[in-house]
Prior knowledge:
It contains two helices and no strands. It is an all-alpha fold.
Amino acid sequence: MNLLEQLVTSFIGKADVGHLGLLLWAVTSSAAAWFVMREVSAANRRFDDFVRELNRFNARHEGDEP
């Protein structure tokens, strides 16, 4: 019997099905928040790269070579 089955059996045996649902909700919410934060961080990095390149482009065409 693996760990997950033991946990589920333990929760059901004690009639703590509500707590099991709350645990599953918390784990899922935390995973979703982690995924969203990772994606926002990557998007912010890409936007920063874009602005930096745009600044270089503008400086090059205005004669202010960095």
